[in-house]
């Protein structure tokens, strides 16, 4: 029986540009994708009809194709999948327009799983894709809300127009002018109860989500771990 | 093709029905089965209920009152008039609600952007929020399109994966909570659709000359599509009726355009660190197409990300003399305006970027007078006479 790499339709390591990474590593990483419990529900095969590509926003502006993702996964083309793990997956918009697939595939879902593997394994490409993203991770994991009003700073969003400056100048006042009491906050989207934050920290720690951060950003992991552990200790919760 | 063949196709499209083998499963049966086996707790839809049609004809039950507002990071963070308008409409129609502090974000924005989370963590965050709602007796109403879509993903994973259920149950035990799933996952725009006639009855501003285009949120109707609303009376049941159904009920001039199905270009990570992509997609594929084909006075959508991407992308595009300049807001803000809400104290339009003033003028709203009122209130707060603006103030 011919081996996978002998199949003329499968990509060779020199063609994908990752010849220096050994085959066992690639197989292990891509194996993690195949073993994810969601994977069998995300791929049923591929007609190569391209309907997903026509619907895909990222395919329009990047060298990216949901069909190529589904196709590589359907063929178990480890070399091509590895290249996509390193290069393509961060271009996907995660809009799931590709669910329009007549075969019932979910290429965007395959990308979600691949990204999770890239982060869990601390790939350099994942670190690079997430550089500049730490403060968002910190915000969501430490406060339970993601976009705080005080993030809306004109230097961070120079292309969003002069209203950004108006908001940041008047922030405290304008927040106090919101009728719902939970929204008078400026450092969180809304007021989150202390007990609720503690519960969230238990979730991050127990499910290993916090450990994933260590793979892509050691500094932010250290700060978050300290914050959460201290807080749980205060509450008398042992993990 | 002969004329008669065309007529046959057109008549079929008038009442569009999907073939049975294309229908996604009805999850309810499975949900109640697992409840009977003691695997989870189902929070029932209760009180006055409206049944709405969904994509494959399965009725979805929307409770009218006693709702637990599951807020949205983006709305509350930088489009606060979005959430405020939802609350305001609910108050005007006389339906009770709870605005909880024991709610966290669904954390899906971060998850889709960075993948620094996993299946179990995402499911546990969802179930913790559902359990918190269940404990109050109020039924969860999900404000964000992404929370809504992601929670439906989580529901499907929990229903089909016993190992995941066991893992989440263990985490919940640590928190002293149960594994709770609601009978329906309801988006606020579904609630607006369900009460659209009541909203239309309470409208005090005529919007029949306002041209509206709708951008439906991907995570609303593409992600776990089965229980999104489709109504034979809205686009012949071929497009989701969320948002558009309300626009029709209000009597506004609903206009179509060819890239209706396209995403807004938000991209989760892209909107923060790769905005050239978001901006290009939003303006070239959505706003410019709408302008060329439908010339709308306003774009209405029902998700935080879409309002952000479509609204904020237009400023820079203007510098390149692109054909942009359409105000963007949620249908909740638009409906509130039609019902007489204050454009700044309730709808908080000053947080938006694209010029909404011509729209207000078309709706018969004196925005200069309204802004002067807002500034008067602001003065009261800034000189310490009052600390916060309350519902009583905005309704005065
Ligand atoms: S989820 Fe990703 S692959 Fe699918 S259509 Fe959206 S951008 Fe394309
Ligand atoms: S739409 Fe589905 S079957 Fe067609 S190319 Fe894309 S993944 Fe393959």
UniProtKB/TrEMBL annotation, chain A:
<dbReference type="InterPro" id="IPR051460">
    <property type="entry name" value="HdrC_iron-sulfur_subunit"/>
</dbReference>
<dbReference type="GO" id="GO:0051539">
    <property type="term" value="F:4 iron, 4 sulfur cluster binding"/>
</dbReference>
<keyword id="KW-0479">Metal-binding</keyword>
<keyword id="KW-0411">Iron-sulfur</keyword>
<dbReference type="Pfam" id="PF13183">
    <property type="entry name" value="Fer4_8"/>
</dbReference>
<dbReference type="InterPro" id="IPR017896">
    <property type="entry name" value="4Fe4S_Fe-S-bd"/>
</dbReference>
<protein>
    <recommendedName>
        <fullName>4Fe-4S ferredoxin-type domain-containing protein</fullName>
    </recommendedName>
</protein>
<keyword id="KW-0408">Iron</keyword>
<dbReference type="GO" id="GO:0046872">
    <property type="term" value="F:metal ion binding"/>
</dbReference>
<keyword id="KW-0004">4Fe-4S</keyword>
<dbReference type="InterPro" id="IPR017900">
    <property type="entry name" value="4Fe4S_Fe_S_CS"/>
</dbReference>
<keyword id="KW-0560">Oxidoreductase</keyword>
<dbReference type="GO" id="GO:0005886">
    <property type="term" value="C:plasma membrane"/>
</dbReference>
<feature type="domain" description="4Fe-4S ferredoxin-type">
    <location>
        <begin position="38"/>
        <end position="67"/>
    </location>
</feature>
<dbReference type="InterPro" id="IPR009051">
    <property type="entry name" value="Helical_ferredxn"/>
</dbReference>
<dbReference type="GO" id="GO:0016491">
    <property type="term" value="F:oxidoreductase activity"/>
</dbReference>
TrEMBL record, chain B:
<dbReference type="GO" id="GO:0016491">
    <property type="term" value="F:oxidoreductase activity"/>
</dbReference>
<dbReference type="InterPro" id="IPR004017">
    <property type="entry name" value="Cys_rich_dom"/>
</dbReference>
<keyword id="KW-0560">Oxidoreductase</keyword>
<dbReference type="Pfam" id="PF02754">
    <property type="entry name" value="CCG"/>
</dbReference>
<protein>
    <recommendedName>
        <fullName>Cysteine-rich domain-containing protein</fullName>
    </recommendedName>
</protein>
<feature type="domain" description="Cysteine-rich">
    <location>
        <begin position="212"/>
        <end position="310"/>
    </location>
</feature>
<dbReference type="InterPro" id="IPR051278">
    <property type="entry name" value="HdrB/HdrD_reductase"/>
</dbReference>
């Amino acid at each position: 029986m011919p081996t996978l790499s002998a199949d003329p339709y499968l990509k060779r390591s020199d063609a994908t540009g990752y010849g220096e990474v050994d085959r066992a590593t690639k197989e292990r990483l891509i194996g993690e994708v195949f073993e994810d419990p969601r994977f069998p529900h995300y791929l049923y095969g591929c007609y190569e009809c391209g309907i997903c590509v026509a619907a895909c926003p990222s395919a329009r502006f990047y060298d990216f194709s949901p069909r190529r993702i589904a196709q590589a996964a359907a063929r178990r083309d480890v070399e091509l999948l590895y290249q996509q793990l390193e290069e393509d997956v961060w271009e996907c918009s995660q809009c799931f327009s590709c669910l329009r697939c007549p075969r019932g595939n979910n290429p965007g879902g395959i990308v979600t799983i691949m990204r999770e593997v890239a982060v869990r394994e601390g790939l350099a490409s994942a670190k690079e894709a997430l550089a500049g993203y730490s403060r968002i991770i910190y915000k969501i994991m430490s406060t339970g809300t993601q976009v705080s009003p005080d993030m809306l700073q004109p230097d961070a969003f120079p292309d969003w127009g002069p209203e950004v400056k108006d908001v940041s100048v008047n922030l405290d006042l304008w927040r106090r002018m919101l009728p719902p009491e939970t929204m008078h906050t400026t450092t969180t989207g809304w007021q989150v109860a202390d007990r609720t934050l503690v519960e969230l920290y238990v979730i991050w720690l127990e499910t290993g989500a916090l450990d994933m951060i260590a793979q892509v950003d050691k500094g932010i992991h250290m700060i978050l771990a300290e914050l959460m552990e201290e807080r749980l200790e205060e509450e008398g919760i042992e993990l | 093709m002969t004329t008669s063949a065309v007529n046959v196709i057109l008549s079929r499209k008038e009442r569009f029905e999907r073939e049975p083998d294309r229908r996604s499963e009805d999850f309810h049966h499975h949900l109640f089965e697992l409840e009977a086996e003691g695997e989870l707790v189902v929070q029932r839809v209760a009180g006055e209920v409206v049944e709405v049609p969904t994509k494959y004809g399965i009725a979805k039950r929307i409770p009218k009152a006693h709702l637990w507002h599951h807020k949205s990071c983006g709305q509350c963070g930088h489009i606060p008039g979005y959430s405020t308008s939802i609350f305001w409409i609910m108050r005007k129609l006389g339906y009770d609600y709870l605005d909880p502090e024991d709610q966290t974000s669904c954390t899906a924005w971060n998850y889709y952007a960075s993948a620094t989370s996993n299946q179990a963590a995402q499911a546990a965050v969802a179930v913790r929020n559902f359990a918190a709602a269940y404990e109050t007796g109020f039924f969860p109403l999900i404000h964000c399109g992404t929370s809504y879509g992601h929670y439906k993903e989580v529901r499907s994973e929990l229903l089909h994966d016993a190992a995941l259920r066991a893992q989440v149950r263990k985490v919940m035990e640590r928190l002293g909570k149960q594994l709770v799933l609601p009978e329906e996952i309801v988006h606020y725009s579904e609630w607006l659709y369900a009460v659209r006639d009541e909203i239309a009855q309470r409208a005090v501003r005529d919007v029949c000359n306002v041209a509206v285009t709708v951008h439906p949120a991907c995570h609303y109707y593409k992600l776990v599509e089965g229980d999104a609303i489709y109504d034979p009376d809205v686009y012949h049941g071929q497009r989701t009726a969320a948002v558009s159904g309300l626009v029709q009920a209000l009597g506004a001039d609903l206009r179509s355009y060819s890239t209706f199905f396209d995403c807004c270009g938000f991209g989760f990570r892209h909107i923060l660190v790769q905005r050239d992509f978001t901006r290009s997609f939003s303006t070239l594929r959505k706003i410019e197409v709408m302008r060329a084909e439908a010339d709308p006075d306003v774009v209405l959508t029902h998700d935080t990300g879409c309002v952000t991407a479509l609204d904020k992308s237009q400023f820079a595009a203007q510098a390149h003399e692109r054909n942009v300049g359409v105000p963007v807001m949620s249908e909740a803000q638009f409906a509130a305006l039609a019902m007489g809400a204050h454009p700044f104290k309730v709808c908080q339009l000053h947080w938006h970027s694209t010029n909404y003033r011509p729209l207000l003028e078309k709706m018969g709203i004196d925005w200069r007078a309204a802004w002067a009122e807002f500034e008067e209130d602001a003065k009261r707060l800034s000189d310490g006479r009052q600390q916060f603006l309350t519902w009583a103030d905005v309704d005065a």
